[in-house]
Amino acid sequence: MRAPIGDFTDARPAPDRLDLLxxxxxxxxxxxxxxxxxxxxxYVDTDPAVADTAVFVEHHGADxxxxxxxxxxxxxxxxxxxxxxxxxxxxxxxxxVNGVVRRHLGARKASFAPAxxxxxxxxxxYGGITPVGLxxxxxxLVDAAVVDMPWVLVGSGRRRGKxxxxxxxxxxxxxxxxxxxxxxxxxxxxxxxxxxxxxxAPRGExxxx
Length: 209
Prior knowledge:
Blueprint: E1 12-13, H1 23-30, E2 42-44, H2 53-60, E3 69-78, E4 81-90, E5 93-95, H3 97-105, E6 109-112, H4 115-122, E7 140-143, H5 144-147, E8 152-155, E9 162-165, H6 167-170, E10 176-179, E11 183-185
Parallel strand pairs: 4-7, 7-10
Antiparallel strand pairs: 1-2, 2-9, 3-4, 3-6, 5-11, 8-9
């Protein structure tokens, strides 16, 4: 089966590839509900060595940059409390952590969560964190521009493999809140400093592509 985006010819419905997903992601696919059926969530097997955004796009084609999204884990602090949240933005943008995210979560300060915290709490691999199957207690913030995409390529929970699903499906995930302006264009000065093209941290490792 050919994927609706990219050069992938071995796409399969994710419910048929549960053995290749991490536990939390597989559980979320099994329990999938909503207007978008589970068989429209596709899994494509990809090389973990090219999981990071820049390398992945170079390998599979520049067109994928505008059809991909990254999932960034942030830590929002208010007083002595810390809230972990996930943000999904297009791969050509960066998360507005200190603007939209901080204000929406009512935090005094927001920053990228440490890698060991993001992976330990999510049960997913660094560089492959996906919005599908995140902890129920986490707020899930999704950029409106991503929801408007016909198809979106995101991480699978592992560095190996990606998920492809309709953008509107991301807005129907448990706890999802769709926000305008969550992702802002990456500038030369800001690239790598604020999560642009990255997923789990501002270094460029991709959770989506």
